[in-house]
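User: My instructor asked us to take a sequence, write out its structure as tokens, and then describe one feature of it. I'm not sure where to start. Here is the sequence I was given:
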Amino acid sequence: MIKKFVCLFLGLVLMASAAYAAQDYEIELTDSRVLTVRLEANESAGYSWDYEISNENAIDMLTNEYVVYDDELDGSGGQFAISFRAFDGVTGDSLITFNYAHASGQIVDKVILQVRADDGEIFVDRADSFSVSGDILTVSLDANATTGYEWVSRVETENMLEPVAEEYIPADTELSGAGGVYRATFKSAGNAGEARIVFDYARSWEDGPEYSIACDVNIDEDGVLELGEIAF
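Assistant: Let's start with the prediction itself. The structure tokens for your sequence are:
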């Protein structure tokens, strides 16, 4: 079930942060009991966030709010802050998907968290993001080069999207074995239609990927992109 954010008080301060192409987001786990996510937004431009929990028997929303940075500044942006909890006595996995969409329905950003519930405690296994701006698609995926795994992308629909750049960004820490972020950028090839990119997380010496992510993109006649379904 998809739910819109409403304004409630949220008395939590976010500590850990991550960034992706068009939007910034922050994540905090408080005593492994409360997960809080904060997302950049600008309702004055006609955009808003919604969210979807794939397993509502394990995860529940606690509170959320939208805070404008400057009430006196016309067009000022702000942040959505939303917190979740895991139910006591329940163990299970869930996806929490955040969609940033225009009032027209065009989705331009997605943040997807893979979380685990374990008898009242909640854990984040990974956080991935997908963003479009005009004719550019940027994908940021959790990765850990120290394990030998790497992301490999392939565009399954010909003449629709062209790869522009990719990079691995290590975590800003001195901890041995720490992970990072794989970031890939694609550009519209100028043809309208639907495109799919598949990302495989694999070791070069092993047969088959550990897992894959498929990203669907819609392209209009002007080459403008819109995010479609993301499949894990």
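For the description part of your assignment, you could build on this observation: The CA atoms of residues 72 and 78 lie 13 Å apart. Try explaining in your own words what that tells you about the chain.
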